[in-house]
Design a protein that fits this description.
Radius of gyration of chain B: 22 Å
Largest sheet of chain B: 7 strands, mixed
Distance between the termini of chain B: 26 Å
Strand content of chain A: 15-25%
Helix content of chain A: 25-40%
Strand content of chain B: 15-25%
Structural class of chain A: alpha+beta
Mean pLDDT of chain A: 90
Distance between the termini of chain A: 27 Å
CATH topology of chain A: Sufe protein. Chain: A
CATH architecture of chain A: Alpha-Beta Complex
Structural class of chain B: alpha/beta
Strand order of the largest sheet of chain A: 3-2-1-4
Number of helices of chain A: 5
Low-confidence stretches of chain B: 1-9
CATH class of the largest domain in chain B: Alpha Beta
Oligomer: heterodimer
CATH superfamily of the largest domain in chain B: Type I PLP-dependent aspartate aminotransferase-like (Major domain)
Strand order of the largest sheet of chain B: 4-10-9-8-7-5-6
Helix content of chain B: 25-40%
Protein backbone atom coordinates (compact mmCIF):
# COMPACT_ATOMS: atom_id res chain seq x y z
CA UNK A 1 0.00 0.00 0.00
CA UNK A 2 1.47 3.38 -0.99
CA UNK A 3 2.16 5.75 1.87
CA UNK A 4 0.63 9.21 1.58
CA UNK A 5 3.74 10.72 3.15
CA UNK A 6 5.77 9.40 0.21
CA UNK A 7 3.60 11.47 -2.11
CA UNK A 8 3.11 14.56 0.03
CA UNK A 9 6.67 15.00 1.23
CA UNK A 10 7.45 18.08 3.29
CA UNK A 11 9.44 19.70 0.51
CA UNK A 12 6.51 19.24 -1.89
CA UNK A 13 4.07 20.78 0.60
CA UNK A 14 6.50 23.64 1.14
CA UNK A 15 6.76 24.43 -2.58
CA UNK A 16 2.98 24.17 -2.84
CA UNK A 17 2.51 26.76 -0.09
CA UNK A 18 5.34 29.02 -1.23
CA UNK A 19 5.94 28.46 -4.93
CA UNK A 20 9.23 29.81 -6.23
CA UNK A 21 9.41 31.78 -9.47
CA UNK A 22 5.65 32.14 -9.77
CA UNK A 23 5.66 35.33 -11.80
CA UNK A 24 5.46 36.59 -15.36
CA UNK A 25 8.89 37.91 -16.45
CA UNK A 26 8.68 40.89 -18.77
CA UNK A 27 11.74 39.83 -20.76
CA UNK A 28 10.81 36.21 -21.47
CA UNK A 29 11.44 35.24 -25.07
CA UNK A 30 9.66 31.88 -25.02
CA UNK A 31 6.39 30.88 -23.49
CA UNK A 32 3.79 28.11 -23.64
CA UNK A 33 0.46 27.18 -22.03
CA UNK A 34 -0.37 23.81 -20.53
CA UNK A 35 -3.71 22.37 -19.59
CA UNK A 36 -4.69 19.24 -17.71
CA UNK A 37 -8.25 18.41 -18.77
CA UNK A 38 -8.51 15.87 -15.97
CA UNK A 39 -8.46 18.47 -13.23
CA UNK A 40 -8.81 21.74 -15.11
CA UNK A 41 -5.37 22.96 -14.09
CA UNK A 42 -3.69 25.51 -16.31
CA UNK A 43 -0.06 26.52 -16.26
CA UNK A 44 2.00 29.02 -18.23
CA UNK A 45 5.77 28.62 -18.45
CA UNK A 46 8.06 31.52 -19.39
CA UNK A 47 11.67 31.19 -20.48
CA UNK A 48 14.40 33.64 -21.28
CA UNK A 49 16.94 31.73 -23.30
CA UNK A 50 20.20 33.33 -24.40
CA UNK A 51 22.77 31.41 -26.46
CA UNK A 52 21.11 28.14 -25.60
CA UNK A 53 21.16 28.80 -21.84
CA UNK A 54 18.04 29.25 -19.69
CA UNK A 55 18.77 32.59 -18.04
CA UNK A 56 15.34 32.83 -16.46
CA UNK A 57 12.39 30.49 -16.02
CA UNK A 58 9.09 31.17 -14.28
CA UNK A 59 5.52 29.97 -14.25
CA UNK A 60 1.99 31.15 -13.61
CA UNK A 61 -1.12 29.28 -12.65
CA UNK A 62 -2.27 27.33 -9.68
CA UNK A 63 -3.08 23.70 -9.33
CA UNK A 64 -2.83 20.81 -6.96
CA UNK A 65 0.08 20.41 -4.58
CA UNK A 66 1.86 18.04 -6.95
CA UNK A 67 1.58 20.23 -10.03
CA UNK A 68 2.42 23.47 -8.24
CA UNK A 69 5.41 21.98 -6.43
CA UNK A 70 6.58 20.32 -9.62
CA UNK A 71 6.45 23.62 -11.52
CA UNK A 72 8.16 25.48 -8.70
CA UNK A 73 10.96 22.96 -8.30
CA UNK A 74 11.39 22.67 -12.06
CA UNK A 75 12.13 26.38 -12.29
CA UNK A 76 14.73 26.09 -9.53
CA UNK A 77 16.38 23.11 -11.18
CA UNK A 78 16.57 24.48 -14.71
CA UNK A 79 17.73 28.02 -14.19
CA UNK A 80 21.22 28.36 -15.65
CA UNK A 81 21.00 25.03 -17.49
CA UNK A 82 21.42 24.65 -21.24
CA UNK A 83 18.49 23.61 -23.39
CA UNK A 84 20.11 20.20 -23.89
CA UNK A 85 20.49 19.77 -20.13
CA UNK A 86 16.85 20.78 -19.62
CA UNK A 87 15.82 18.12 -22.09
CA UNK A 88 17.87 15.59 -20.12
CA UNK A 89 16.15 16.64 -16.90
CA UNK A 90 12.77 16.25 -18.60
CA UNK A 91 13.59 12.69 -19.66
CA UNK A 92 14.91 11.65 -16.26
CA UNK A 93 12.08 13.32 -14.37
CA UNK A 94 9.53 11.69 -16.66
CA UNK A 95 11.11 8.27 -16.14
CA UNK A 96 11.14 8.83 -12.38
CA UNK A 97 7.44 9.67 -12.00
CA UNK A 98 6.24 7.08 -14.51
CA UNK A 99 8.17 4.34 -12.72
CA UNK A 100 10.59 3.67 -15.60
CA UNK A 101 13.49 4.38 -13.29
CA UNK A 102 14.25 1.10 -11.51
CA UNK A 103 13.71 1.30 -7.77
CA UNK A 104 16.93 1.89 -5.89
CA UNK A 105 18.74 3.41 -8.84
CA UNK A 106 20.83 6.53 -8.40
CA UNK A 107 18.66 9.59 -8.99
CA UNK A 108 21.10 12.03 -7.44
CA UNK A 109 21.45 13.73 -10.82
CA UNK A 110 17.93 15.00 -10.34
CA UNK A 111 18.79 16.69 -7.07
CA UNK A 112 15.77 17.70 -5.01
CA UNK A 113 13.43 16.55 -7.78
CA UNK A 114 13.98 13.00 -6.52
CA UNK A 115 11.21 13.66 -3.95
CA UNK A 116 8.72 13.13 -6.76
CA UNK A 117 9.55 9.42 -6.87
CA UNK A 118 6.44 8.78 -4.75
CA UNK A 119 4.23 9.85 -7.65
CA UNK A 120 4.86 6.58 -9.49
CA UNK A 121 2.59 4.84 -6.96
CA UNK A 122 -0.27 7.10 -8.06
CA UNK A 123 -0.72 6.65 -11.82
CA UNK A 124 -3.54 9.21 -12.06
CA UNK A 125 -1.27 11.85 -10.53
CA UNK A 126 1.57 11.47 -13.03
CA UNK A 127 -0.01 14.10 -15.25
CA UNK A 128 -0.06 16.57 -12.37
CA UNK A 129 3.68 16.12 -11.92
CA UNK A 130 4.53 16.36 -15.61
CA UNK A 131 2.24 19.19 -16.77
CA UNK A 132 4.75 22.00 -16.14
CA UNK A 133 7.53 19.93 -17.69
CA UNK A 134 5.61 19.25 -20.88
CA UNK A 135 4.77 22.93 -21.03
CA UNK A 136 8.42 23.91 -20.52
CA UNK A 137 9.43 21.66 -23.40
CA UNK A 138 6.73 23.12 -25.62
CA UNK A 139 8.02 26.59 -24.80
CA UNK A 140 11.57 25.58 -25.73
CA UNK A 141 10.30 24.16 -29.01
CA UNK A 142 8.15 27.24 -29.54
CA UNK A 143 5.00 25.23 -30.03
CA UNK A 144 2.04 27.57 -30.06
CA UNK A 145 -0.86 25.25 -29.25
CA UNK A 146 -1.82 24.61 -25.64
CA UNK A 147 -0.17 21.48 -24.31
CA UNK A 148 -2.63 18.96 -22.94
CA UNK A 149 -1.59 16.06 -20.80
CA UNK A 150 -4.26 13.83 -22.32
CA UNK B 1 -23.72 10.22 15.89
CA UNK B 2 -22.93 6.98 14.23
CA UNK B 3 -23.58 3.58 15.68
CA UNK B 4 -20.59 1.30 15.35
CA UNK B 5 -21.32 -1.71 13.20
CA UNK B 6 -25.03 -1.03 13.08
CA UNK B 7 -27.55 1.06 11.25
CA UNK B 8 -28.46 4.38 12.84
CA UNK B 9 -31.98 4.65 14.16
CA UNK B 10 -33.34 7.19 11.71
CA UNK B 11 -32.53 4.91 8.79
CA UNK B 12 -34.61 2.20 10.41
CA UNK B 13 -37.40 4.66 11.06
CA UNK B 14 -37.57 5.30 7.35
CA UNK B 15 -38.27 1.62 6.92
CA UNK B 16 -35.35 1.37 4.60
CA UNK B 17 -33.22 -1.70 5.03
CA UNK B 18 -29.97 -0.34 3.73
CA UNK B 19 -27.92 -3.30 4.94
CA UNK B 20 -30.10 -5.69 2.96
CA UNK B 21 -29.91 -3.42 -0.09
CA UNK B 22 -26.12 -3.28 0.16
CA UNK B 23 -26.13 -7.05 -0.02
CA UNK B 24 -27.50 -6.79 -3.56
CA UNK B 25 -24.43 -4.87 -4.79
CA UNK B 26 -21.40 -7.17 -4.96
CA UNK B 27 -18.93 -4.41 -5.88
CA UNK B 28 -19.58 -2.63 -2.57
CA UNK B 29 -18.11 -5.52 -0.60
CA UNK B 30 -14.45 -5.08 -1.32
CA UNK B 31 -11.49 -3.46 0.29
CA UNK B 32 -9.27 -0.86 -1.35
CA UNK B 33 -5.85 -0.21 0.19
CA UNK B 34 -6.93 -2.51 3.01
CA UNK B 35 -9.97 -0.41 3.86
CA UNK B 36 -13.62 -1.06 3.10
CA UNK B 37 -14.69 0.65 -0.12
CA UNK B 38 -16.89 3.71 0.38
CA UNK B 39 -18.31 4.49 -3.02
CA UNK B 40 -19.45 8.11 -3.29
CA UNK B 41 -19.05 8.68 -7.02
CA UNK B 42 -22.58 7.75 -7.98
CA UNK B 43 -23.18 10.77 -10.18
CA UNK B 44 -20.39 9.46 -12.43
CA UNK B 45 -21.76 5.95 -12.48
CA UNK B 46 -23.61 3.72 -10.05
CA UNK B 47 -22.71 0.22 -8.92
CA UNK B 48 -24.90 -2.58 -10.27
CA UNK B 49 -27.22 -4.81 -8.26
CA UNK B 50 -27.00 -8.58 -8.74
CA UNK B 51 -30.22 -8.80 -10.84
CA UNK B 52 -28.71 -6.43 -13.41
CA UNK B 53 -25.49 -8.44 -13.55
CA UNK B 54 -27.54 -11.65 -13.78
CA UNK B 55 -29.55 -10.25 -16.70
CA UNK B 56 -26.33 -9.51 -18.61
CA UNK B 57 -24.95 -12.96 -17.87
CA UNK B 58 -28.22 -14.68 -18.76
CA UNK B 59 -28.36 -12.97 -22.13
CA UNK B 60 -24.83 -14.00 -23.05
CA UNK B 61 -25.11 -17.50 -21.64
CA UNK B 62 -28.63 -18.45 -22.82
CA UNK B 63 -30.39 -15.95 -25.08
CA UNK B 64 -27.61 -14.51 -27.22
CA UNK B 65 -29.11 -13.81 -30.62
CA UNK B 66 -29.85 -10.82 -32.78
CA UNK B 67 -33.27 -9.24 -32.47
CA UNK B 68 -36.16 -8.38 -34.79
CA UNK B 69 -35.11 -10.74 -37.56
CA UNK B 70 -34.55 -14.33 -36.50
CA UNK B 71 -37.11 -17.06 -36.97
CA UNK B 72 -35.36 -19.14 -34.35
CA UNK B 73 -36.17 -19.42 -30.68
CA UNK B 74 -33.15 -17.62 -29.28
CA UNK B 75 -33.81 -14.59 -31.44
CA UNK B 76 -37.43 -14.66 -30.36
CA UNK B 77 -36.43 -14.73 -26.70
CA UNK B 78 -33.86 -11.97 -27.14
CA UNK B 79 -36.38 -9.82 -29.01
CA UNK B 80 -39.07 -10.39 -26.41
CA UNK B 81 -36.76 -9.52 -23.52
CA UNK B 82 -35.46 -6.43 -25.28
CA UNK B 83 -38.94 -5.18 -26.11
CA UNK B 84 -40.14 -6.01 -22.58
CA UNK B 85 -37.45 -3.64 -21.39
CA UNK B 86 -38.83 -0.92 -23.61
CA UNK B 87 -42.23 -1.44 -22.00
CA UNK B 88 -40.65 -1.17 -18.55
CA UNK B 89 -38.96 2.09 -19.54
CA UNK B 90 -42.26 3.40 -20.90
CA UNK B 91 -43.97 2.65 -17.59
CA UNK B 92 -41.03 3.89 -15.56
CA UNK B 93 -41.15 7.40 -17.04
CA UNK B 94 -44.89 7.28 -17.74
CA UNK B 95 -44.69 7.70 -21.49
CA UNK B 96 -47.86 7.14 -23.53
CA UNK B 97 -46.52 4.48 -25.86
CA UNK B 98 -43.52 2.21 -26.52
CA UNK B 99 -43.00 3.96 -29.84
CA UNK B 100 -41.89 7.02 -27.88
CA UNK B 101 -39.00 5.14 -26.26
CA UNK B 102 -35.84 5.13 -28.38
CA UNK B 103 -32.87 3.15 -27.09
CA UNK B 104 -29.62 5.06 -27.53
CA UNK B 105 -26.11 4.74 -26.12
CA UNK B 106 -26.74 7.23 -23.34
CA UNK B 107 -28.07 10.70 -22.54
CA UNK B 108 -25.36 12.26 -24.68
CA UNK B 109 -26.45 10.41 -27.78
CA UNK B 110 -30.08 11.25 -27.02
CA UNK B 111 -29.27 14.96 -27.01
CA UNK B 112 -27.22 14.67 -30.19
CA UNK B 113 -30.07 12.81 -31.87
CA UNK B 114 -32.52 15.61 -31.06
CA UNK B 115 -29.97 18.20 -32.15
CA UNK B 116 -29.38 16.54 -35.51
CA UNK B 117 -32.82 15.17 -36.35
CA UNK B 118 -35.19 17.65 -34.75
CA UNK B 119 -33.48 21.01 -34.42
CA UNK B 120 -31.05 20.97 -37.35
CA UNK B 121 -33.68 20.83 -40.13
CA UNK B 122 -35.64 23.77 -38.71
CA UNK B 123 -32.80 25.98 -37.46
CA UNK B 124 -32.13 29.17 -39.41
CA UNK B 125 -29.66 32.00 -39.13
CA UNK B 126 -30.58 34.22 -36.20
CA UNK B 127 -32.60 31.53 -34.40
CA UNK B 128 -31.82 30.78 -30.78
CA UNK B 129 -31.38 27.71 -28.61
CA UNK B 130 -31.74 28.22 -24.88
CA UNK B 131 -29.78 26.22 -22.31
CA UNK B 132 -28.78 27.03 -18.74
CA UNK B 133 -25.65 27.97 -16.81
CA UNK B 134 -25.53 24.64 -14.96
CA UNK B 135 -25.42 22.30 -17.94
CA UNK B 136 -23.08 19.35 -18.44
CA UNK B 137 -20.90 19.66 -21.54
CA UNK B 138 -23.14 17.12 -23.25
CA UNK B 139 -25.96 19.67 -23.16
CA UNK B 140 -23.75 22.50 -24.39
CA UNK B 141 -21.48 21.20 -27.13
CA UNK B 142 -24.10 19.58 -29.44
CA UNK B 143 -25.91 22.93 -29.55
CA UNK B 144 -22.71 24.89 -30.12
CA UNK B 145 -21.88 22.68 -33.09
CA UNK B 146 -25.34 23.26 -34.51
CA UNK B 147 -25.39 27.01 -33.85
CA UNK B 148 -22.00 27.43 -35.49
CA UNK B 149 -23.12 25.55 -38.57
CA UNK B 150 -26.42 27.42 -38.90
CA UNK B 151 -25.44 30.88 -37.70
CA UNK B 152 -27.82 30.52 -34.75
CA UNK B 153 -27.21 31.76 -31.20
CA UNK B 154 -26.85 29.77 -28.02
CA UNK B 155 -28.41 31.63 -25.08
CA UNK B 156 -27.81 30.75 -21.45
CA UNK B 157 -30.19 31.12 -18.50
CA UNK B 158 -28.09 32.51 -15.61
CA UNK B 159 -28.04 31.21 -12.04
CA UNK B 160 -27.44 32.66 -8.59
CA UNK B 161 -24.64 31.84 -6.14
CA UNK B 162 -26.67 29.00 -4.65
CA UNK B 163 -26.79 27.36 -8.06
CA UNK B 164 -30.45 28.10 -8.77
CA UNK B 165 -31.62 29.23 -12.18
CA UNK B 166 -33.11 32.73 -12.40
CA UNK B 167 -36.60 32.16 -13.71
CA UNK B 168 -37.33 35.82 -14.45
CA UNK B 169 -34.27 35.92 -16.67
CA UNK B 170 -35.38 32.65 -18.19
CA UNK B 171 -38.76 34.09 -19.06
CA UNK B 172 -37.16 37.09 -20.77
CA UNK B 173 -34.94 34.75 -22.81
CA UNK B 174 -37.96 32.89 -24.25
CA UNK B 175 -38.25 34.78 -27.49
CA UNK B 176 -39.92 34.46 -30.87
CA UNK B 177 -36.73 33.03 -32.39
CA UNK B 178 -36.16 30.46 -29.61
CA UNK B 179 -36.41 27.06 -31.30
CA UNK B 180 -35.75 24.83 -28.30
CA UNK B 181 -35.11 24.93 -24.58
CA UNK B 182 -32.71 22.22 -23.39
CA UNK B 183 -32.14 22.01 -19.67
CA UNK B 184 -30.91 19.57 -17.04
CA UNK B 185 -33.46 18.17 -14.59
CA UNK B 186 -30.73 17.88 -11.92
CA UNK B 187 -27.26 19.45 -12.11
CA UNK B 188 -24.43 16.91 -11.99
CA UNK B 189 -21.94 19.41 -10.57
CA UNK B 190 -24.17 21.20 -8.05
CA UNK B 191 -27.05 18.87 -7.29
CA UNK B 192 -29.63 21.58 -8.01
CA UNK B 193 -33.09 20.23 -8.82
CA UNK B 194 -34.22 22.47 -11.64
CA UNK B 195 -37.93 23.44 -11.64
CA UNK B 196 -38.39 21.97 -15.09
CA UNK B 197 -42.15 21.57 -14.80
CA UNK B 198 -42.59 25.33 -14.40
CA UNK B 199 -40.01 26.06 -17.07
CA UNK B 200 -41.74 23.75 -19.53
CA UNK B 201 -45.05 25.47 -18.85
CA UNK B 202 -43.49 28.86 -19.50
CA UNK B 203 -41.90 27.67 -22.75
CA UNK B 204 -45.03 25.93 -23.96
CA UNK B 205 -47.10 29.10 -23.52
CA UNK B 206 -44.85 30.45 -26.28
CA UNK B 207 -44.96 27.21 -28.27
CA UNK B 208 -41.31 26.47 -27.63
CA UNK B 209 -40.47 22.77 -27.24
CA UNK B 210 -38.35 21.57 -24.33
CA UNK B 211 -35.76 18.81 -23.97
CA UNK B 212 -34.98 17.71 -20.41
CA UNK B 213 -31.62 16.05 -19.65
CA UNK B 214 -32.62 13.64 -16.91
CA UNK B 215 -29.30 11.81 -16.52
CA UNK B 216 -28.90 12.95 -12.89
CA UNK B 217 -32.59 13.01 -12.00
CA UNK B 218 -33.83 9.55 -12.90
CA UNK B 219 -31.71 7.78 -10.23
CA UNK B 220 -33.10 10.01 -7.48
CA UNK B 221 -36.73 10.80 -8.19
CA UNK B 222 -39.78 9.76 -10.13
CA UNK B 223 -39.40 11.19 -13.64
CA UNK B 224 -42.88 11.47 -15.10
CA UNK B 225 -42.80 12.78 -18.65
CA UNK B 226 -46.60 13.04 -18.83
CA UNK B 227 -46.72 15.25 -15.76
CA UNK B 228 -43.72 17.32 -16.83
CA UNK B 229 -45.12 17.70 -20.32
CA UNK B 230 -41.62 17.78 -21.82
CA UNK B 231 -41.20 17.15 -25.53
CA UNK B 232 -38.00 15.15 -25.14
CA UNK B 233 -36.39 13.48 -22.13
CA UNK B 234 -33.05 11.67 -22.06
CA UNK B 235 -31.23 9.56 -19.51
CA UNK B 236 -28.37 7.05 -19.25
CA UNK B 237 -28.75 3.47 -18.07
CA UNK B 238 -25.50 3.33 -16.13
CA UNK B 239 -26.44 6.19 -13.82
CA UNK B 240 -29.63 4.39 -12.84
CA UNK B 241 -27.96 1.12 -11.75
CA UNK B 242 -28.03 -0.35 -15.25
CA UNK B 243 -25.13 -1.11 -17.59
CA UNK B 244 -23.03 1.37 -19.53
CA UNK B 245 -23.65 1.89 -23.23
CA UNK B 246 -27.42 2.05 -23.13
CA UNK B 247 -29.73 4.99 -22.56
CA UNK B 248 -33.11 6.33 -23.46
CA UNK B 249 -34.51 9.11 -25.57
CA UNK B 250 -38.18 9.80 -24.94
CA UNK B 251 -39.90 11.95 -27.54
CA UNK B 252 -43.52 12.89 -28.12
CA UNK B 253 -44.78 10.69 -30.89
CA UNK B 254 -45.83 13.43 -33.31
CA UNK B 255 -42.38 15.01 -33.02
CA UNK B 256 -40.50 11.74 -33.54
CA UNK B 257 -42.79 10.90 -36.49
CA UNK B 258 -41.86 14.12 -38.24
CA UNK B 259 -38.13 13.79 -37.65
CA UNK B 260 -35.75 12.34 -40.24
CA UNK B 261 -33.60 9.37 -39.14
CA UNK B 262 -30.42 10.03 -37.16
CA UNK B 263 -28.33 7.22 -38.63
CA UNK B 264 -28.92 4.92 -41.56
CA UNK B 265 -28.44 1.18 -41.48
CA UNK B 266 -30.11 -2.08 -40.70
CA UNK B 267 -33.23 -2.36 -38.54
CA UNK B 268 -34.24 1.26 -39.19
CA UNK B 269 -35.74 0.46 -42.60
CA UNK B 270 -38.80 -1.36 -43.78
CA UNK B 271 -37.65 -1.73 -47.38
CA UNK B 272 -34.54 -0.80 -49.32
CA UNK B 273 -33.91 -0.58 -53.05
CA UNK B 274 -31.13 1.40 -54.68
CA UNK B 275 -33.78 3.92 -55.72
CA UNK B 276 -35.63 4.38 -52.48
CA UNK B 277 -35.64 3.37 -48.86
CA UNK B 278 -38.77 3.31 -46.72
CA UNK B 279 -37.98 3.90 -43.08
CA UNK B 280 -39.20 1.64 -40.35
CA UNK B 281 -41.90 2.75 -37.91
CA UNK B 282 -41.14 4.28 -34.55
CA UNK B 283 -39.03 3.79 -32.54
CA UNK B 284 -36.98 1.58 -34.88
CA UNK B 285 -36.50 4.42 -37.35
CA UNK B 286 -33.95 5.78 -34.85
CA UNK B 287 -32.29 2.48 -33.97
CA UNK B 288 -29.95 1.71 -36.84
CA UNK B 289 -27.73 -1.33 -36.50
CA UNK B 290 -27.65 -4.05 -33.89
CA UNK B 291 -28.24 -2.29 -30.57
CA UNK B 292 -26.82 -2.99 -27.12
CA UNK B 293 -29.22 -5.89 -26.61
CA UNK B 294 -27.77 -7.17 -23.34
CA UNK B 295 -27.60 -3.62 -22.04
CA UNK B 296 -31.19 -2.87 -22.95
CA UNK B 297 -32.40 -6.05 -21.25
CA UNK B 298 -30.32 -5.35 -18.16
CA UNK B 299 -31.66 -1.80 -18.01
CA UNK B 300 -35.10 -3.36 -17.68
CA UNK B 301 -33.79 -5.40 -14.74
CA UNK B 302 -32.44 -2.21 -13.13
CA UNK B 303 -35.83 -0.57 -13.45
CA UNK B 304 -37.53 -3.60 -11.91
CA UNK B 305 -35.06 -3.43 -9.05
CA UNK B 306 -35.68 0.27 -8.41
CA UNK B 307 -39.44 -0.08 -8.63
CA UNK B 308 -39.40 -2.98 -6.17
CA UNK B 309 -37.78 -0.64 -3.62
CA UNK B 310 -39.86 2.32 -4.73
CA UNK B 311 -38.61 5.64 -6.08
CA UNK B 312 -40.46 7.53 -3.33
CA UNK B 313 -38.66 5.59 -0.61
CA UNK B 314 -35.35 5.99 -2.40
CA UNK B 315 -35.89 9.75 -2.62
CA UNK B 316 -36.91 9.97 1.04
CA UNK B 317 -33.86 7.98 2.19
CA UNK B 318 -31.44 9.92 0.00
CA UNK B 319 -32.85 13.27 1.11
CA UNK B 320 -32.34 12.25 4.73
CA UNK B 321 -28.77 11.22 3.94
CA UNK B 322 -28.16 14.48 2.07
CA UNK B 323 -29.39 16.50 5.07
CA UNK B 324 -27.12 14.49 7.35
CA UNK B 325 -24.14 15.02 5.04
CA UNK B 326 -24.82 18.73 4.59
CA UNK B 327 -24.94 19.11 8.37
CA UNK B 328 -21.68 17.13 8.72
CA UNK B 329 -20.01 19.38 6.13
CA UNK B 330 -21.10 22.52 7.97
CA UNK B 331 -18.99 21.36 10.94
CA UNK B 332 -15.84 20.92 8.86
CA UNK B 333 -13.53 23.94 9.13
CA UNK B 334 -12.34 25.40 5.84
CA UNK B 335 -14.82 23.41 3.76
CA UNK B 336 -17.21 25.22 1.45
CA UNK B 337 -20.10 23.59 -0.36
CA UNK B 338 -20.51 24.65 -3.99
CA UNK B 339 -24.20 24.40 -4.85
CA UNK B 340 -26.58 25.15 -2.01
CA UNK B 341 -29.90 25.29 -3.82
CA UNK B 342 -33.04 24.99 -1.71
CA UNK B 343 -33.96 21.87 -3.63
CA UNK B 344 -31.13 19.42 -4.25
CA UNK B 345 -30.53 15.80 -5.15
CA UNK B 346 -27.68 13.82 -3.57
CA UNK B 347 -24.63 15.79 -4.69
CA UNK B 348 -22.11 17.47 -2.38
CA UNK B 349 -19.66 19.50 -4.42
CA UNK B 350 -17.07 21.10 -2.19
CA UNK B 351 -13.71 22.78 -1.89
CA UNK B 352 -11.26 22.61 1.00
CA UNK B 353 -9.51 25.90 1.70
CA UNK B 354 -5.91 25.85 0.51
CA UNK B 355 -6.09 22.34 -0.90
CA UNK B 356 -6.68 21.50 -4.52
CA UNK B 357 -9.60 19.05 -5.10
CA UNK B 358 -7.23 16.64 -6.80
CA UNK B 359 -5.20 16.32 -3.61
CA UNK B 360 -8.42 15.89 -1.63
CA UNK B 361 -9.38 13.06 -3.98
CA UNK B 362 -6.04 11.27 -3.65
CA UNK B 363 -6.05 11.43 0.16
CA UNK B 364 -9.66 10.24 0.38
CA UNK B 365 -8.87 7.44 -2.06
CA UNK B 366 -6.22 6.21 0.34
CA UNK B 367 -8.97 6.01 2.96
CA UNK B 368 -10.99 3.82 0.62
CA UNK B 369 -13.35 6.66 -0.27
CA UNK B 370 -14.12 7.09 -3.96
CA UNK B 371 -15.22 10.58 -4.95
CA UNK B 372 -14.91 12.59 -8.14
CA UNK B 373 -12.61 15.56 -8.48
CA UNK B 374 -12.33 17.91 -11.39
CA UNK B 375 -14.67 20.10 -13.41
CA UNK B 376 -17.32 17.38 -13.76
CA UNK B 377 -17.68 18.12 -17.47
CA UNK B 378 -19.19 21.44 -16.46
CA UNK B 379 -16.39 23.96 -16.93
CA UNK B 380 -18.78 26.94 -17.23
CA UNK B 381 -20.16 26.05 -13.78
CA UNK B 382 -16.62 26.03 -12.34
CA UNK B 383 -15.88 29.38 -14.01
CA UNK B 384 -19.04 30.85 -12.49
CA UNK B 385 -18.03 29.85 -8.98
CA UNK B 386 -14.46 30.91 -9.73
CA UNK B 387 -12.91 27.54 -8.86
CA UNK B 388 -10.82 25.40 -11.24
CA UNK B 389 -12.46 22.27 -9.94
CA UNK B 390 -14.33 20.83 -6.99
CA UNK B 391 -14.37 17.59 -5.09
CA UNK B 392 -17.75 15.89 -5.38
CA UNK B 393 -19.33 13.24 -3.22
CA UNK B 394 -22.52 11.93 -4.80
CA UNK B 395 -24.96 9.68 -2.99
CA UNK B 396 -26.89 6.55 -3.78
CA UNK B 397 -29.49 4.76 -1.69
CA UNK B 398 -26.88 2.15 -0.70
CA UNK B 399 -24.78 4.76 1.08
CA UNK B 400 -25.01 5.11 4.85
CA UNK B 401 -24.50 7.65 7.59
CA UNK B 402 -21.40 5.73 8.67
CA UNK B 403 -19.94 6.34 5.23
CA UNK B 404 -20.68 10.05 5.55
CA UNK B 405 -18.92 10.01 8.93
CA UNK B 406 -15.93 8.34 7.28
CA UNK B 407 -15.97 10.98 4.54
CA UNK B 408 -15.96 13.75 7.13
CA UNK B 409 -13.07 12.07 8.97
CA UNK B 410 -11.24 11.74 5.64
CA UNK B 411 -11.66 15.44 4.94
CA UNK B 412 -10.27 16.24 8.39
CA UNK B 413 -7.26 14.10 7.47
CA UNK B 414 -6.80 16.16 4.30
CA UNK B 415 -6.57 19.27 6.46
CA UNK B 416 -4.02 17.50 8.68
CA UNK B 417 -1.76 16.50 5.77
CA UNK B 418 -1.82 20.08 4.51
CA UNK B 419 -1.62 21.81 7.89
Amino acid sequence: MPDLRELYQQVILDHHKKPRNRRRPGDANKHAEGFNPLCGDKVSVFLRIENGVIRDIAFEGSGCAISTASASMMTESLKGKTEAEAEGFFERFHDLVTGKTPAGSDVSGLGKLAVFAGVREYPVRVKCATLAWHTMRAAMEEREETVATE
Amino acid sequence: MSVAGGIPGSQERLGFEVSRIRGDFPALHQEVYGKPLIYLDNAATTQKPQPVIDAMVRFYTCDCANIHRGVHLLSERATRNYEDSRTRVKRFINAADESEIVFVRGATEGINLVAQSYVRPLLERGDEILISALEHHSNIVPWQILCEEKGARLRVVPMNMRGELLLEEYESLLRPRTRLVSVAHVSNALGTVVPVERMIGMAHRRNIPVLVDGAQAVPHMKADVARLGCDFYVFSGHKVYGPTGVGVLYGKKHLLEAMPPYQGGGDMISSVTFEKTVYNRLPYKFEAGTPNIAGGIALGAAIDYLEAIGLDRIAEYEQDLLRYATEAFSNLPGVRLIGTAAEKAGVLSFVVEGVHPHDVGTILDQEGIAIRTGHHCAQPVMDYFNVPATARASLAFYNTREEIDALAAGIRKVAEVFS
